[in-house]
Every structure is written in C-alpha cells, then in structure tokens.
Amino acid sequence: MRASLIQIAVDEGEPVESRRRRAAALVREQAGADLVVLPELWTTGAFAFDRFAAEAEPLEGPTYEAMAKAASDAGVWLHAGSIPERDPEGPLYNTSLLFTPSGELAAVYRKIHRFGFDEGEAVLMGAGRELVTVRLPDTTLGLATCYDLRFPELFRGLVDAGAQTLVLCAGWPERRREHWTLLARARAVEDQAFVLACGTAGTHAGVPQAGHSIVVDPWGEVLAEAGADEEVLTVDFDPARTGATREQFPALKDRVLGLDPPRR
Ligand SMILES: O=C(O)CCC(=O)C(=O)O
Fold first, then answer.
1. The CN hydrolase domain covers which part of the protein (predicted)?
2. CA quadruple 90, 55, 98, 165: dihedral positive or negative?
3. Which of 5, 35, 77, 123 could form a disulfide with 198 if both were Cys (CB 3.0 to 4.6 A apart)?
4. Is beta strand 92-99 parallel, antiparallel or unpaired with respect to 105-110?
5. Which of 83, 93, 125, 176 most suits a substitution to test ligand 1, by most atoms within 8 Å of the C-beta?
C-alpha cells in the first residue's frame, strides 16, 4: 500500500478557504496512492479555540464537499483529517471524515479524548463515544485523533474491533514532540500495528506545531518521518506485516483481562 500524509501548514495569515483549496490540490496530487491522510482541525488550527464556533461546519459542509471531490478526483481513500463539526442538535465536535476513492463518506469519527484540562477544546467541544474502524481492500483502519494517542486503552479497543493499521490525525505542539514520537512507536509496538500519524506544520494561536508526521511499522521501526515544515510524507508498506508480526510474536494473545483489584 502507498500512503501519503499531508502535513499542511496552519498559519493564521492564510484564510480558511485558501487552505481548503490548497489541501484539495495536494490531495489531487496524490493520485496513485491508496490512502491519503490530512491532520486534525487543519481549517482552523487545533489551538485556535476562539475560531472553533465561527468556523464550525455541518458534517456535509464546505470541507466535506471539497474533500469528497478531491478523493474521487484522485481516486484515493482519503482520511480528510478533522473539522470543527456543528451538530444541529448538540455541541461542536472534533470530527474526522473518511472518504472512499469514489468520494463517498465511509466513516465519521468524533474525537473521544478532548485536550485542555477543563479549558479550550475540553470545554468547547463535545466528546465522541464510539470507536471507529474502516475496512479497506488490504487492511482495516482504526481511527484516532491527537490527544487520543495518550490513551492506550482506546487503541486496544480498536485492535479488539479488528484494526490492523492505526491512523491518527493531529495538531501536536512542538513543545511535546518527544512524546509524539515515543507514543506513536509505543502504540505500534504494543498493538502490533502500523501507525500512520499526520500532524500540522506552521504556527497558529502562538503555538508552534511539531510537524514530524510519522509512519511506524508493527515492530516499532520508523518507516518515514517528516521534518517540521509543510511536507507530503509518502511511504510504501506491506499491510500483511501486521498479521505476520502478530503470528510470529503473539504477545496480544497473552493479555490477561479483568484482574482482581488490590485487597488493600
Ligand atoms: O497531548 C498532547 O500533548 C497534545 C494534544 C493536543 O494538542 C490535542 O489533542 O489537540
């Protein structure tokens, strides 16, 4: 499989509509890839809290339209990153969209772990509750977003639901770049799965972004890693390696669940 991670720069100076056009053009340039991935909240920026409400879109809003078309023009599976979604009957959500190569919506994932410790996203957006996996011709994807990366139980839930390739969209800050790389590799090793993690470049809301989108194999080896600036990271990988790794080193079979709590 060929995957292209579009590590787009999110800078305040660029209007959302211009970035949306650029993202669509970058997706079209990836014709020939099997899967293309965009980052988290790339229209507004993950830390532009004051813009979430103003830039929020209904699920089938302008980003949906542009990305559905770009996916079908390029003929690729497209994880279109996430948008600030305005649910007519509820709060805002940090919602990822995944399209088929003919531009149909294949999956919607609402971020489960909201970042901010009672501020920012944690209070401005609602929390998703549902694990999402998507069957592609050669692998099953498990979807996650940014801060989710710190919660291994979510990824175990995805593995239990059949995920073989874990796809994470993010707007991870430069200040915690070491955590990003370490946790992406940890999730790959413990879940014996490919991890495709796509972040943003640039600086918005005064928060320099880490970039360094990364693809890790089920043995924890880094197959490809981007730099800090806008870049398309393209990698070829054999999705069958997930099954082979799980068979040759069957640690997932040794899980012990439902342990007794300490007596005192
Ligand atoms: O966990 C972190 O360090 C970053 C998380 C984050 O920036 C987010 O979820 O938007």
1. 1-239
2. negative
3. 5
4. antiparallel
5. 176
Short-list 249, 38, 242, 219, CA closest to 159? 242
**Residue 162 DSSP label:** T
Greatest C-alpha distance within the chain: 61
Which stretches of the chain drop beneath a pLDDT of 50? Answer: none
Q: What is the pTM of this model?
A: 0.97
Both tokens assigned to 195: 């991890």
pLDDT recorded at residue 12? 86
Closest ligand 1 atom, residue 114 Cα: 9
Count Cβ neighbours within 10 Å for each residue of 42-52 and write b for 16 or more, e otherwise: bbbbbbbbebb
What integer pLDDT is reported at residue 159 of this predicted model?
Answer: 98
Those residues whose C-beta lies under 8 Å from the C-beta of residue 62, and which sit 6 or more positions away, are 17, 20
Distance CA 78, CA 168 (A): 13
